[in-house]
Amino acid sequence: MHVTWLDSNSWLIELGGKRILLDPWLVGDLVFGGATWLFRGTHPQPVPVPEDVDVILLSQGLEDHAHPATLAHLNHDWLVVGSPNAASVVQKMGYSRVVALPHGETYCLDDRLEIRAVPGSPIGPTLVENGYILKDLQTGRSLYYEPHGFHSETLKDFAPVDVAITPMMNLELPLLGPIIKGRESALRAAEWLTPQVMLPTAAAGQVQYEGLLVSFLRAVGNTDEVRAGLRDRHLTTQVIEPQPGDRLELQLQTQPTV
Known about the structure:
By secondary structure, the chain is of the alpha/beta class. The chain has helices spanning 68-73, 84-92, 183-193, 223-232, and strands at 2-5, 11-15, 18-22, 40-42, 55-58, 79-82, 98-100, 106-109, 113-123, 127-136, 142-145, 163-166, 170-173, 177-180, 197-200, 208-210, 218-220, 238-239, 247-249. α2 (84-92) links the parallel β6 (79-82) and β7.
């Protein structure tokens, strides 16, 4: 298994002989609802756009996961799998191969890669977006991804997984509390899934943020706290912090069968 962090929540996952482009923000600025005065994210350095992608995988329909400028730039003939909300976004953009994947359902790509949707982040009072468990159907290697740290107890049914990608710090707003939950929830996911490797997401590598909202956001926690929590729980999970653009080959052991 190879993983490349493309900064923020964007990843290129190589698993099951497939290249999965996950929540890509690669082109243009990140803005919500056109309100640049409120929040604006920029890439100070160009981000190489991956080629030969087998599937674009979208966890949410919001701009930081289904990024409009990036999706407009990418090949509209590529397969897209996403939450129903994200699928609606790309369908309106003219993508020709779109699969909406509700919680609990799976999609198999060429009998090599299984994509399973699990409950993820709540968006507003009624909408819950997707997390995913990816599985190589030939080797059994697996990866879990949820970008905001909202982990469903249904994950226990799919343990163990080899790799978990999840936030490892909280991003909090006054009065509203955490909009990204990483401190305790990363450890909870580790207890449920017993991954060999955990990778932090939702952090800023090279990207830069500005706007009124940024002045109120508060980051709490870090990967060292997660490592200490794993030791306290007698878990051998390794926390790896990749650098943007580095392609990592994850050295994984064969998981014991139950």
